[in-house]
Amino acid sequence: MIDFRYHLVSLISVFLALAVGIVLGAGPLGDNLGTQLAEQVEQLRGEQEQLRTEADELQTRNDQLASYVSESGPELVADTLPGQSVALLTDGDSTRTATEQVTSLLEGAGVSAVVEIRLRSDLWDPAQEQRRAEAADEIRSIAPALLDPELEGPAQLAAIVPALLAEDPSGELTQELRTQVWQVLVDHQLIALTDGTPGVVEAVVYASAAPETFVLEGEAEDLAAERAQNLLSAQTAVLTSLAATSVPAVVSAATPANDSSTGILRTVRGDAGFDQLSTTDRLQEADGPILSVLALIEQVRGGAGAYGTTADAAERVPPLPAPTAPADSEGEGSAPSDGGNG
To answer: Beta strand pairing status for 113-119 and 249-253?
Structure first.
């Protein structure tokens, strides 16, 4: 049996250990620990300040580059797309300022015609299902081949738009049929045309609004979810149809807060099936429109890329186009080419 003296020794040992800990903690060890903590805090403050300085420098450089690109835009793209016809698709009124700038730059690049096509909200509005069904029935009676049987609702109708802008290898889709289908889409308020009935084009820019602009304040949660799903289906169908046409195309999106994780860029940049399409973010920024046009120039010349400042962009800006070489003349100073054979 353990006697009282053993308990007494144990208690004394515990109290001695506590006393020693208190003395050391309040003395040299405490001072050392406090010093270490203070040094670590100071180091973290220094690192934070350094990171803030680097971030400010990067932002300054980015702003300078954006200013240079936007101010030099007209000169950079001048006469780089002579005689081209371009369709400018948009899915929201908030892109108006940007699309006007894109149009101006395209005209400066020598584009012969810019046709603007606006996808209207009735294309994905949950309340307009009947209107979409009626439009599909009319198109089926005019040009049934345009309706993809594997699609339905907003996706089926949205996919028609790029198809109407591209060459038809079969030759069955005449301009008269195209005009009739465009008119059906306009009459049912699914799209709006600002420059007459489009024909076949040689390139496309799809300017997409910021995701939050599609949200209706006060809408019931279930309707809001259905609206968002319809919108995504329509946008994805446009992208898929664009990729299938092989028409040079750029998808440009507004990315407030430098975020591309919730909009159309998340779809196109996250799927290898869209790799042939070029993408640009920053549509709402001063250099956004020129990024779109520079990317289109690269597309027309056979290249592709993802440009901007969001996390999923591959490069800041597209390659700057080489100046158009003047036509050779037979006057003084010109020499006939020998094909490099000397």
So the answer is: unpaired
